[in-house]
Here is the input.
Amino acid sequence: MEVIIKDNYEEVSQLAAEYLINTVKSKNNAVLGLPTGSTPMGMYRIVIETYKDNNISFKDVTTFNLDEYVGLDKNHESSYSYYMDKNFFSHIDIKKENTYIPNGVAKDMEEECNLYENLIRERGPIDILFLGIGPNGHIGFNEPNDFFEPHTHLVKLTEDTILANSRFFDNMESVPKKAITMGMKSILSAKKIVMLATGEAKSDAILKSIKGKVTPQVPGSILQLHNNVTFILDKDAAKYL
Ligand code: GLP
Here is the structure.
């Protein structure tokens, strides 16, 4: 495991963007695993700027997002699908049909989870997967649990996560209570994993993920089992290391 500590959010975003760009430059049909949330916003912005200034193309790139809220369709402003279009996909030359995000309004959720899992298997392996982390250690939407869920699955969000994510909604009541997320096996099957974390609110989850025991109570701790993972942190997120 590699841990890189940067001075601030901008430097974390810059380095993360370099990982993404270098992956696409060295493999034009790369498969990317992508996160949402506030943390990767800077990375997407820098990748878009680099895309505009340089000769890189995403036209053969495939992407898999980690998760999506249940009950929000892709036009809902708080859906992760909407987020991805707004913050990344609409600014680059990626083909929409190569961008996969779980369908949060699928009629049959079990079927949707299986479909997504099969797609990752068929189109993968993911070359590089970027992750954020929740203050409670969740990755994707794999919440603290008694066991590690291997495959794409439906999850009931914890109160902590609903509260943490309520900033993206008008009020607590409108935050979905369920989500679809890639499971741990899907995450660990990526060839390379890059975890981004900034700010003090993530410092405890980061300490436990890097130095604690591997336990489903701290989902991020499973990354200790992967042989090619890089944590890119700012000083605040790294303060207990
Ligand atoms: C959400 C997402 C995660 C993300 C986490 C951290 O719950 N499902 O994939 O990593 O929040 O988000 P943020 O970067 O906004 O702190």
Summary: The CA atoms of residues 2 and 230 lie 5 Å apart.
